[in-house]
Each structure stands twice: as structure tokens, then as C-alpha cells.
Write a structure and sequence with these properties.
The complex is a heterodimer of chains A (250) and B (446). Chain A contains nine helices and twelve strands. Chain A is globular, with a radius of gyration of 18 Å. In chain A, strand 9, helix 7 and strand 10 form a beta-alpha-beta unit. By secondary structure, chain A is of the alpha/beta class. In chain A, helix 2 crosses helix 3, helix 4 packs across helix 6 and helix 6 runs parallel beside helix 7. A six-stranded mixed beta sheet of chain A has the order 6-9-10-3-11-12, sandwiched between helices. In chain A, strands 2-1-4-5 form a four-stranded antiparallel beta sheet. In chain A, strands 7-8 form a two-stranded antiparallel ribbon. By secondary structure, chain B is α/β, with parallel strands linked by helices. Chain B is 24% helix and 37% strand. Classes of the chains: A alpha/beta (250), B alpha/beta (446). Chains A and B meet through helix 2, strand 7, helix 3 and strand 8 of A and helix 8 and helix 9 of B.
Chain lengths: 250, 446
């Protein structure tokens, strides 16, 4: 579904991604690991259409469509979802209004009528349960005053609402205690199907105890330098990234 | 430009007085003398540095000194009733109180008086004399002085001791004229001890000519009384709306004032609230949505003359195209006004490179045991928040709307009439979408 070919991207003139290639098929879970500054979050930002990053070379196709030519909203409507590392607080926009607008924009894109009020409430209720999101939070402004764990749960809640074909979880485990991690991971696992895929971006191995990947890629210096099975994570946890750096820079 | 009005007054003062509410005549010569001395305000004055009124004041307007009836039935042309709002409804056409009262107004509680200054001046001259001009006559302000010289009528409301109005009083100012027209009116609102009332003032224009409205409103809020004042401006771009709202609060009274400018040409609101008793609560809010060449200046003063009062001020502007906003937040705390708590916020979003905002907090604090804060920001929409919304499939246009709407939300939340709050939400949304925010079925808003 997703083909990234020799992607180069930079921010403020500094090249971060230097020829990254990756292929994701439906039903797969890919983990992207790597040391700080390797370009993990840049990859997430570029895929979701953050305009602070400039793509200088390479291509990304999603079900045959040129993803990079689409504005962020169309990428979302095509089924790409980014769970933000730092979810944004938006005072004055209620979660309900935000989600209703988003769901209806997705429906409009598929030539469907707006969702009925009762169906929408039912959907909200079901998806909230999935990540054990408090009713009170859903009635508040988007992420405003949410704790770190609540914000991440809220990301997975939005993911459940929008039912993406490809989810990119950017450091979803950062700042989570073990209980919150379990809830978030269980939410992600419940949403896994044979027709959707997940890219998990993480610095640590511990999230991968809960969300078991099919592939692990090590991102270093803007490129994927090593790919393996889930056992690679354990090796990295044990030995750190230095041995890979040596191998590459060596 | 003052000279033509000075000449006009000298020539016509007998007519002005003859057709006027008689209590206004008591103030007239003093006001005229003041106007003759100071003239119209210019941007050289500190209080008017953000209101350049030279152009609108130089235009040639007709005045209706002889009070010739205006051929319009507001009940026919005015369909802007906020749906779901149950109100006591009154009209001022140009600067005259419309005499035919809505039959629903018969339900006013006993003792409450609502009507024209002219009529009530005849039936209750002493009541009016006790209050009229007490706040306005001493103002060294060219617009107030001019109003004092030329205003002949206005809206009057009196709520006696401990009487509570169960629904808002709605005053609709309708401007109707075939030629460029100037209206001066003087309104007077009195709430006695323990009384409770809400007043909603709506400004509308029926015709597409140049209007200049110069209105002075005095409000007296007695001890323990609760008063809410809402002003909604939704007129044509050729209208200049000059409005002076002077309020006095006595001990333990509560006031909420919320002035909303959705659409207009040039707006100048001068608002002064004097806290003349202890334990007063004051909330002063405002919102401006400006585009094209709109100019909106809110000049506000809250005077903490007594100790132990709380005031909160919140103004928000969304300015597009070439529109220009001005805000002054004057906060005065007298020497003995200890334990004052006063908070002021003005936040502004500029949507275009040409839009401009001038904002000036002006705190004068002479007491030493007070809590006062102020904050002013001018910026653009939050790009990170916009991207977040877009990343969920919301179009850029819709994301901008959501953010602008959210930005104005805390002002809208300070509307405590539910039907009005719903209506304003809708009007603001339409306005932000670039649609005319006129009400459904309304034939008069241009």
C-alpha cells in the first residue's frame, strides 16, 4: 500500500532524510527505531504533510497515488493517520465538534451524507471505550488540560474514529506510564486488521512488547540501515545503537 | 466642520428645544457651550488616537430637528427577532422612539417603566431629573457634548427596587433614510436597589446611505442590583456608529457588558464603568469581526473608586483585509480602593498583511494592596493547531474557521441569554465564513 522510494527531506535547509526507502503492505506492522536525530519524526511529519519540511527528492505512493502531491487533509481522507508525538491543545474547539467535522469531511470525500447525530454519538461511545477515554474528556476542548497519557489515548481514539488504512504512531509511548502504555497498545491492537497497516516509530523497545511488529527497521542518519524481525528490537535494547553506528560509519 | 453645526444650533435651537424631551433641554445649553469650546475630537487627543473621525464627521448629513415622522413600520421591516428569545421589544427609528408598543410588553411587571424619554419626561419628570446627565454632563468629550446639544429623545428604562425582569428588554435601533442622515439620541437606564434586568441593543440599517449615529447611554445600577448590557452591531459599511456608554455601579452590584461588532463601517465605543460602591462585580467583554475597510475602536475605562471590587475585561478581534482595530483598556484604581482585583485581556488575530491593530492597556493604580493584570497579543492563527486539524481530514478553510470560532468562544460564553448566545454563534460562524450574517427572513440588513 505504501511505497517510499529514495526519499530526501530537509528542514530549514538541513537535510534530515537522505534516501529513505520503505515498503508497507496491508496487514503489516512495521517498527522504525533509531537513535535521536536519525530522522524518525521527520519521516512521520513528511508523510502527514507538515509543510515545515521540504521534500527535495524521491517519491511516496499510497495505493498508487502520489501522496506528496496531496494536502494534509486529503492524505487523511485517503486513510493516512498520524498519531502526534506532541498532540496539540486547541482551546475553544470541543472534541465533539472536532470529531464530527473530521468524520463528515471524510464522508464527504467518499460522497457519503453527513453522519446522523445518533449514529455519531453511538460511534463516539464505542470508540471511547476502546481506549478507556473518560466521558468528561470528550466534552472538553481538544487536548486542553489533558495529561500526557490522556493526550496519547485521545490520539488513538481519533484513530479509531477515522478508521485509517495506514496509521503512523510517532513516539506514542513517550511520556506514558506502564498502565497508559498497555491501554494505548491494546487500543492499537484491537484496530489491527488484515486490510490496514501500522508504522510504529519508537526509541525504546518496550512498546514493541505490546504491539508486536512484523518488521523492525533501524533508521540512522536519514536512511534505513538495517531491517530485521522482532528479535532485532531485543538486540538493540541490549546493545544500544552504537554497534550499528560503527558498522555504518565504520 | 464644527462651524456648520454651531450655526445650525444657534439658528435652530428654539426648534430643537420645542421638539425635544423636556429633561434633555436642561442640559442643552451647557452641552452646546462645551461643544463650542472643544469641538469634535481629533486623533491629536490621547483618547481618540485610534479613532480618526474626520472623514465621517465632515460629511453632510440631514438632521430631523423638527421630528418629522419617518415612514417605516419596524414591525414589518424588522424580522431579525432572535429565534427562541422572549423579550420585551422596543424600537428606536433613527433617533426617535417608535410609539407603537408590542402588546407583549403589557406583561412588564408593575412599576417598571419603559418608553421614550419624551413621554416619560412628561409623566415622571422628577425621576428623570434625578439621573439624567449625572454621568454625561461632566464629560469633557466632544461627541457627548454634541449629543447633549442635539439629542431630542431616547430610550428610557426604569426597574424599581427588587423587581426582576424575567426576560430581556430588546432595543432595536433602526436607521432609515433616503438621504445621508445623522441621529443623536440619549438613553437612560435606571435599576434601583436589588433590581435585575438585561438589555439587548441591536443596531441595524435599512437603507444603503451614509448614517452617523451618535448615542449616549447612561446606566445607573443600584445597590445589589444585577444588570446585563448586550450590544450587537450589524449594519452597513457606510454607517458610523459612535456610542458612549456610561455606567455607575453602587455597592454589591453586578454588571456584565458585552459589545459585539459583526459588521459596520466605523465604530467607536466609549465605555466607562464607575464602581462607586464596595463589592461590585464587573465583567466587560467585546468582540470584533472586521474586514474590508471597517474601523472599530473600543475605548474602555473601568474606574475602581471604592475598595473590594472585582473587574474582568476581555476583548477579542479578528481582522481581515484592510480593517483596523483599536482597543484601549483604561483601568483606574483610586488611592483608597484597596483589595481591588482587576484583570484585563485583549487578544487579536490579523488574517491579512494589511489589517492593523492598535492596543493599549492603560493602568493607573494609586492603591497598594491590589491584584491587577493585563495582557495584549496580536498574532496570526496558530499554524500548528491548523495542521493538527488538517491532519484529521479537515480542510484548510474549515480548520481556519474552527480556530477563529474557537478564538471568539470565550466572549460568546459571556452571553447569558441562551437564545442570544446560540444566535450569535450562528451569526459569527456565518460572518467568519464570509457570508452576510443577516438573519433569516430579514429584508433590511444590507
Amino acid at each position: 500500500m505504501l511505497e517510499i522510494k529514495k526519499l530526501h527531506a530537509s528542514i530549514n535547509g538541513k537535510e534530515i532524510l537522505k534516501g529513505l526507502s520503505l515498503s508497507v503492505k496491508p496487514g503489516e506492522v512495521h517498527a522504525i527505531m533509531g537513535p535521536n536525530g536519525a530522522g524518525k519524526s521527520t519521516l512521520a511529519s513528511v508523510l502527514s504533510g507538515n509543510q515545515n519540511y521540504e521534500v527535495t527528492n524521491g517519491e511516496v505512493s499510497f495505493y498508487g497515488k502520489d501522496l506528496l502531491s496531496l494536502p494534509p487533509e486529503d492524505r487523511s481522507r485517503e486513510g493516512v493517520f498520524l498519531s502526534f508525538q506532541y498532540p496539540v491543545e486547541i482551546p475553544g474547539v470541543s472534541m465533539t465538534n472536532f470529531m464530527r467535522t473530521a468524520v463528515n469531511e471524510h464522508r464527504k470525500y467518499k460522497n457519503l451524507d453527513p453522519i446522523s447525530a445518533s449514529d455519531f454519538l453511538k460511534m463516539m461511545r464505542e470508540k471511547k471505550e476502546l481506549v478507556e477515554l473518560d466521558n468528561k474528556l470528550a466534552n472538553r476542548s481538544v487536548n486542553e488540560g489533558f495529561s500526557g497519557g490522556e493526550k496519547k489515548r485521545n490520539e488513538i481514539f481519533q484513530m479509531a474514529m477515522l478508521d485509517p488504512r495506514l496509521s503512523i504512531l510517532d513516539e506514542t509511548d513517550s511520556g506514558l506510564d506502564i498502565d497508559a502504555l498497555r491501554i494505548v497498545a491494546s487500543g492499537v491492537n484491537k484496530l489491527r486488521r488484515s486490510d490496514n497497516a501500522t508504522i510504529v516509530i519508537t526509541h525504546y523497545q518496550r512498546l514493541l512488547d505490546y504491539i508486536v511488529p512484523d518488521f523492525i527497521h533501524v533508521l540512522y542518519n536519514g536512511r534505513i540501515v538495517k531491517t530485521g524481525g522482532k528479535e532485532l528490537a531485543l538486540e538493540l535494547e541490549e546493545k544500544g545503537y552504537d554497534w550499528i553506528k560503527k558498522e555504518i560509519d565504520g | 466642520m464644527e462651524q456648520q453645526y454651531i450655526d445650525l444650533y444657534k439658528e435652530q435651537q428654539a426648534n430643537v428645544k420645542m421638539h425635544s424631551a423636556s429633561p434633555l433641554n436642561d442640559l442643552r445649553d451647557g452641552s452646546f457651550a462645551l461643544f463650542e469650546r472643544i469641538g469634535f475630537p481629533t486623533i491629536k487627543l490621547e483618547n481618540y488616537k485610534y479613532s480618526d473621525l474626520k472623514e465621517p464627521l465632515s460629511a453632510d448629513y440631514g438632521l430631523n430637528i423638527n421630528r418629522i415622522p419617518i415612514p417605516v413600520n419596524p414591525y414589518e421591516v424588522f424580522k431579525c427577532d432572535v429565534p427562541g428569545i422572549k423579550s420585551f421589544l422596543y424600537f428606536v427609528v433613527n433617533d426617535g422612539f417608535y410609539p407603537v408598543s408590542d402588546p407583549r410588553n403589557n406583561a412588564l411587571p408593575e412599576g417598571v417603566i419603559v418608553g421614550s424619554l419624551k413621554e416619560v419626561g412628561k409623566s415622571h419628570p422628577d425621576l428623570i431629573a434625578r439621573y439624567l446627565g449625572k454621568l454625561s454632563a461632566k464629560k469633557e468629550d466632544g461627541l457627548v457634548a454634541f449629543n447633549g446639544a442635539f439629542a431630542q429623545d431616547g430610550f428610557f428604562m426604569y426597574v424599581p427596587k427588587n423587581v426582576v425582569l424575567d426576560r430581556p428588554v430588546q432595543l432595536v435601533n433602526i436607521m432609515r433614510s433616503d438621504v445621508d442622515f445623522m441621529a443623536n439620541s440619549h438613553n437612560l437606564v435606571i435599576l434601583e436597589e436589588g433590581a435585575k434586568a438585561q438589555l439587548l441593543v441591536c443596531d441595524h440599517t435599512v437603507d444603503d446611505v451614509k448614517f452617523l449615529c451618535n448615542r449616549v447611554t447612561e446606566v445607573f445600577v443600584g445597590e445589589n442590583a444585577t444588570y446585563e448590557h448586550y450590544k450587537l452591531e450589524n449594519t452597513n459599511t457606510k454607517t458610523t456608529n459612535l456610542s458612549t456608554l456610561l455606567m455607575q455601579q453602587l455597592a454589591s452590584s453586578t454588571v456584565l457588558a458585552n459589545v459585539i461588532t459583526l459588521h459596520n463601517g466605523i465604530t467607536r465605543n466609549t465605555i466607562e464603568i464607575a464602581l462607586d460602591g464596595q463589592h461590585c462585580e464587573t465583567t466587560l467583554c467585546g468582540m470584533v469581526i472586521g474586514d474590508k475597510n471597517q474601523k472599530v475602536d473600543n475605548f474602555t475605562s473601568i474606574l475602581h473608586n471604592q475598595p473590594n471590587c472585582n473587574s474582568k475585561e476581555l476583548f477579542k478581534y479578528v481582522l481581515d483585509d484592510m480593517s483596523v482595530g483599536g482597543f484601549t483598556g483604561k483601568l483606574f484604581v483610586a488611592k483608597d480602593a484597596q483589595k481591588t482585583a482587576a484583570f484585563q485581556t485583549n487578544r487579536n488575530i490579523l488574517l491579512s498583511k494589511m489589517a492593523r491593530m492598535n492596543t493599549k492597556p492603560q493602568l493607573e493604580i494609586y492603591a497598594d494592596d491590589v491584584k491587577c493584570s493585563h495582557g495584549a497579543t496580536v498574532g496570526q492563527l496558530d499554524e500548528i493547531a491548523k495542521f493538527y486539524l488538517q491532519s484529521r481530514g479537515i480542510s484548510e478553510k474549515e480548520a481556519r474557521l474552527l480556530l477563529m470560532f474557537a478564538f471568539t468562544n470565550d466572549v460568546i460564553e459571556n452571553i447569558r441569554i441562551e437564545a442570544l448566545q446560540d444566535r450569535i454563534k450562528l451569526l459569527v460562524e456565518k460572518r467568519l465564513r464570509g457570508e452576510l450574517s443577516k438573519c433569516e427572513g430579514c429584508v433590511i440588513c444590507q
